[in-house]
Design a protein that fits this description.
Layout: E1 6-12, E2 28-34, H1 38-48, H2 54-73, H3 80-98
Antiparallel strand pairs: 1-2
Protein name: DUF3861 domain-containing protein
Pfam families: DUF3861
Organism: Chitinophaga terrae
Length: about 100
C-alpha cells in the first residue's frame, strides 16, 4: 500500500431484497486507498447540500471519491474511453471544488 495515501475499509451488507424481505449474505469488505481524507470531505459534503437528502450527499461524495480515485490511478491507461471519462470527471471535480 502507498505510504502517501489514506487507507480505508468499507463494509457493505445487504439488508433487504426488492420485496423488503431480509436476506442472508456475506458482507463485502473492501480495503482501498485514497489521496484525500474522506472524513474531511464528508464533513464538507454535509455543509454543501448539493442534494436535499443528507444521505444522498453522503452517497454521492463517497461514490464520487471512489470512482475518481480509480480513474486517477489509471489515468495513463491507453483505453480512449477512460481518457475521455478522466477529462470529463476532472473538469467536473474542478467545478465542484470551486462550488459552481
Amino acid at each position: 500500500m502507498d505510504k502517501k495515501a489514506y487507507n480505508y475499509q468499507l463494509t457493505i451488507k445487504g439488508l433487504t431484497d426488492l420485496q423488503g424481505q431480509t436476506f442472508e449474505n456475506e458482507p463485502l469488505i473492501l480495503e482501498f486507498q485514497n489521496h484525500d481524507d474522506l472524513f474531511k470531505i464528508l464533513e464538507i459534503a454535509k455543509s454543501s447540500a448539493i442534494f436535499e437528502n443528507p444521505n444522498d450527499n453522503t452517497e454521492f461524495f463517497i461514490g464520487l471519491k471512489l470512482f475518481s480515485e480509480v480513474l486517477l490511478r489509471n489515468r495513463k491507461t491507453p483505453n480512449p474511453v477512460l481518457k475521455d471519462l478522466t477529462e470529463t470527471v476532472g473538469a467536473f471535480m474542478m467545478k465542484l471544488k470551486k462550488g459552481k
